[in-house]
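Re: How this chain folds, sequence and tokenised backbone to follow

Filed under: protein folding, tokenised backbone structure, sequence and structure records.

Contents: The amino acid chain and a row of whole-number tokens, matched residue for residue.

Body of memo: The sequence and its backbone structure tokens, given next.
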Amino acid sequence: MKMTRRITCILLAILMIFALAACGQSQSPEATEAPAAAPETEEKLQFRVGMECAYAPSNWQEDTASENNVPIENVPGAYAQGYDVQIARHIAQELDRELVIVKLGWTGLIEALNQGQIDAIIAGMADTEERRQSVNFSIPYHVTAYGIMTLPDSQFASGTSINDFAGASVLGQKDTQLDTVIDQMEGVNHLPPVDSVPNMISRLDQGTCDAIVINLENAPGYLELNPDYNVIEFEDGNGFDLGFSGSCVGLRLEDDELLSQVNDALSLYTEEEFVELWDWAVENQPA
């Protein structure tokens, strides 16, 4: 009987120990619960922008990183800089997206846009009637004017109207208004266009054309490299009828929401700020 009573006491003591242990565990949930998982960081959407990276001061390529240039995704070790690049940076910041620059040839920009390789074209592209058939254009972020550049001793160097070039061989850039406006010049030899402005200048220097059509805002940069060249700026009524607003951001036709966001971002700039930014690009473009 005593033995039975002793065993019962021992069992009760053991049960009390387990009960106390259980109570102790219930008072310390941090010791048994797994730590809460850290919230995942949501990656920013990309804003993929196509440009030539070869059309200073609008856009050009550099080989050294700086505080305000942008790596070129498909050219390792290269960076995009220029007026278009700063416009793209501003828009990406307003959209809260990661800016990605893709270097593309001019003639491939619209195709790359509509195939989804890029989200936007920011490359000094004008909103021409033909392009509006396949591209949704923003409000202008730069207004342009066209002129003529000749060699200093050219017989056409004193022209004051686009109709003073009869007999001249005139060259423009392929798939741009720099080429198509030549048809407005009476009596000229409209040469087959070439792929870039540097190529145009090279042909002029070689004497294989008499004149080239240029964006006048780019003239200071061209003259810095070729100070003896002659740039002709026409007075109102004597120059080209461009038929477009200016340099605009190009988007896919279906991207209406993105178009609205881009226009909102561009609207934050004043005209003076656009001019200041353009002057900075002209001053800092590569020699």
Notes: The two ends are 110 Å apart (CA to CA).
